[in-house]
Hints:
A hairpin with a 4-residue loop joins strand 7 (about 295-310) and strand 8. This protein is about 60% helix and about 15% strand. It is of the alpha+beta class. Mean pLDDT is about 75; it is low at about 10-15, about 175-185 and about 375-378. The chain is built from 14 helices and 8 strands. Helix 3 crosses helix 5 (about 90-125) and helix 6 (about 135-165) runs antiparallel to helix 9. The protein has 3 domains: about 1-195, no CATH class; about 200-260, SH3 type barrels (Roll), CATH 2.30.30; about 265-350, Alpha-Beta Plaits (2-Layer Sandwich). The longest helix is centred in the N-terminal third of the chain and has 35 residues, at about 90-125.
Amino acid sequence: MQLESLRAPVLWLASVLDLAPPWALDVAALVLAIAIALFAHYVVTRLLDRLVATRREFLSLLLKRTAGPTRLAAVIFAVSVVTQWAPFGPGVTEAITHILVIAFIVLVGWTAMIAVAIAADLYLARFTLDAEDNLLARKHVTQVRILQRAVDTLTIIITAAAALMTFEPVRQYGISLFASAGIAGIVVGLAARPVLSNFIAGIQIAMTQPIRIEDAVIVENEFGRVEEIAAAYVVIRLWDRRRMIVPLSYFIEKPFQNWSRQSTDLIGGITVYVDYAAPVQRIRDKLTEIVAQSPLWDRQLVSLQVVDVKETSMQLRALVSAKNADALGNLQAEVREKLVGFLYQEHPEALPRGRAELDLTPHVRDRLGPPNAQASAA
């Protein structure tokens, strides 16, 4: 009875297959293969995720972030199997196979870049740039990010080269180019000099670290902080929120100032001009009092010296220290403002002034004549 009930659907399916054109069967086989590949991918990734979820954080993240590339790889494998089985013409089969090879090469490069990004993020997770003493964090973040961009660049170049080499004309051209690489190498080298110089400069910066992320620098007489180190340029966030874009090679070939190379603490000066009658020791004591009351001072250095004398004034220089460039700038402004206010309120005689001497000797007075006579003559 059961066999009789199955006989009708089987006969119907056989009649449909007999009436269907050959390409319909190929499409059906292709769709079925893709569905099986996606289902197999789902099952395998679920099993692997359960196996490595609690053991290897890197592998777990790699499985999650490469779900798209591996899914496409499963589809490519299924299509390649059906292509070899389906009765396509030699030209069609070769074209499809070529496209699948290129897609597989791109997927490998894509997966490699994802793996590098995961490794970099896991390594940098132990560091934070928000800490007060972030010198070590800035060092590692700079190194890892620059090396990550360098590896990504190399991966893209190798992937593109591998994909292009699958074309016969390009492969033959590459062989002939290598055979006559003298002049061609010089021309390509000159044309790619800016790119290569920035690439090599990026590697040098990652190794030697003349700059790091969030370093306080002065570039082209502009003060700012290193906001981003890209593959070919550095973004400097200036004090007024502008952005200066500087090539990487600049920091290898030209001098610049780095205020946080070894440590973030800095010493800054405040210049004040006063009269010769100014009480220097009293000003020195007031400076110490002002700085001691400021939370911006790091309790390291405070001093006041007479550094120059001119015809009409003395030049005083106050030195103060702070834990970083931002705190130093605010501390300098605070000290400057309070010192000038102190001199104006308590020692106005210490402010710079111009002097003139009136000669009232008898000889000069006789020449000028009586004041009333001068007024009447006028």
